[in-house]
Amino acid sequence: MISLKDMSSPSSMFAAYASMSASIVLFKTMFNQLVPHPVQRYILSTIRCFFKPRSSLLTFIIEEKNGMAPNLIYDASEIYLCTKISPDAERLKISQSPKEKNLTVKFVESEKIIDTFEGFELHWRFVHEESQASRQTDGDNTNHSWKPDKRFFELSFQKKHKSTVLDAYLPFVLNKAKKIKEEKKVVKLHTLAYSPSYSGSCIWDSLDLQHPSTFDTLALDPDLKKAIIADLDRFVERKEFYRRVGKAWKRGYLLYGPPGTGKSSLIAAMANYLRFDVYDLQLGNLRHDSDLRKLLLGTANKSILVIEDVDCTVDLPDRQTKSSGDGNGRKRDVQLTLSGLLNFIDGLWSSCGDERIIIFTTNHKEKLDPALLRPGRMDMHIHMSFCTTHGFKLLASNYLGIHSHWLFGQIEDLILTTEVTPAEVAEELMKSNDADVSLEGLLKLLKRKRIESQETKGESDEIEIPEAKRLKTEETENKINANGKLLE
Ligand SMILES: Nc1ncnc2c1ncn2[C@@H]1O[C@H](COP(=O)(O)OP(=O)(O)OP(=O)(O)O)[C@@H](O)[C@H]1O
Ligand SMILES: [Mg+2]
């Protein structure tokens, strides 16, 4: 041992230093030889950690996968951070898959983003570790292992904000990402297709719903339009309400009115407004209640199930008969019943999913089975009627971009006294970009229709005013809706 007293001269100091160095070398050699490598690594990392200055930062690692399953926080972070890309970003990945309408922007390695939340900063870093093949030799055996690609985000912030990040910031990111996803969602139309691989039974086939109809383009009584939008808004916001009262989270609408009054357009407008997929269930293609059940169970949440022309697409037998004619006098082996459909929709199907809307349409409400009309079955009955003067003005503005014209007066007078559908008006307005030509065409059509209706009714000297009648019926209808059906 060398004591401090011995280090009084340079030569003794040198001797002491040399002896210390020799001891360190000896210690290192023995440490390397005697202590197994994993233990060495553990000891060194513990010592390093002990002497490392304490950081005031905390970093969350958000990996792409949670075992085999996707990590929802990673997915949400990726979507959210795309809205936060700095204008200085130099490299980004852009892609588009054949089935998608929108481009996807992704980060390249080491992209850094600074976000602020409740007045503090959060530093995001994207890390992509590329896949690697590694070779390990263990005695005579050589193992080849494959480390797959690893992607993750590092989220760093001051430690004191840990609970705010966990309880408020990350839920905020999840929520924001959900909204962005909903906005980008391409609404799909699912229709029935025969599948030879499923022994000829029907399966859902989907394509993008490209129906451009929206509530802005729909010629509909303004109050009724407002009531429908308010009803949809209330429906999607009331998750907790439905849970509390123990009701399945579904809503039913019955749309009725003559052909060409916009029933299908209203369905498309609803789907575009809510960004819900549409399932078009053509009952005529089905034979058994069991097929129907299978298909209904194959529908997703946040969707609209549509059964068009429920009075005539299929000759649904009543509760006793289990077969129906095919129109040629022959009997077709159909075991599809209206009660089967309704029971399943009200019962099992709606309790298996969330945010389901079901819409029946018909041209003849009076022909419907009373089971469909009974209170509580369809929440709102919506009467789609002939074109009104308000509807005409909206269509003229949509199709021709005009809000007034010297022919408007005559056309509006005739619309008040003639039964013309929005589809017929729209067709005339589409015939030319020249407003004079289109409006004159419409005027001719209205005059012709009025003469025809007077001839069939034999009322040459007395003009009936269907519009006034219509307004009266609509008024009563809307009152019923507002009192009985609209409000839960
Ligand atoms: N209320 C409306 N507002 C705007 N356009 C409409 C309206 N009604 C009909 N149209 C136009 O007419 C076309 C046909 O209308 P739609 O298919 O919606 O009628 P429908 O009531 O479903 O008819 P059907 O009973 O024959 O199924 C639409 O594509 C649209 O261009
Ligand atoms: Mg239709």
Briefly summarize what is shown.
Residues 453-478 have a biased composition (Basic and acidic residues). The chain is built from 15 helices and 19 strands.
Kindly describe this structure.
The chain is α/β, with parallel strands linked by helices and 488 residues long. It folds into 3 domains: 57-184, no CATH class; 188-384, P-loop containing nucleotide triphosphate hydrolases (Rossmann fold), CATH 3.40.50; 389-475, no CATH class. Helices cover 43% and strands 22% of the residues. The protein contains 15 helices and 19 strands. α8 (289-297) links the parallel β14 (277-280) and β15 (303-307). It is elongated. The N and C termini lie far apart (93 Å). 22% of the residues are buried.
Helix content: 40-55%
How are the strands of the largest sheet arranged? 12-11-14-15-18-13-19
> CA-to-CA gap between the ends?
93 Å
* Rounded radius of gyration (Å): 36 Å
What small molecules accompany the polymer chains?
adenosine-5'-triphosphate, magnesium ion
Keywords:
488 residues; alpha/beta; Rossmann fold; 3 domains; 7-stranded mixed β-sheet; 4-stranded antiparallel β-sheet; 22% strand; elongated; disordered N terminus; binds adenosine-5'-triphosphate; binds magnesium ion; nucleotide-binding; AAA+ ATPase domain-containing protein
